[in-house]
Amino acid sequence: MKDEDVRDVAALLKTMSHPIRLKILCLLQEKEMAVGDIREEVKTTNANVSQHLSILRNQGIVSSRKDANFIYNRIDDQRVLELIAKLRDLFCEEGDG
Predict the structure, then answer these.
(1) Which helix (H) or strand (E) holds 76?
(2) d(C-alpha 22, C-alpha 57), whole Å
(3) Hey, what domains does the chain have and what are their CATH numbers?
């Protein structure tokens, strides 16, 4: 692996490693979601969810679309979807979300 690739992967993993961001990614693996729906699942404020989504967007992991008064977020990188699925397979008990 080239040094540049190592740096890119390390930055991606660092971004994903925060517990709230990892939970958001697990949720978005299933479907796109609005901030309010994410907030209900991760049990924090809209502002905190928005801040974490902004970090994920800046890294190119998540993208969003606006529909009326709602902004829907989704994982925009197939590799991240595959990585989250593998992490769930390796570390989550059956039925965990």
Answers:
(1) none
(2) 14
(3) 3-88 (1.10.10.10)
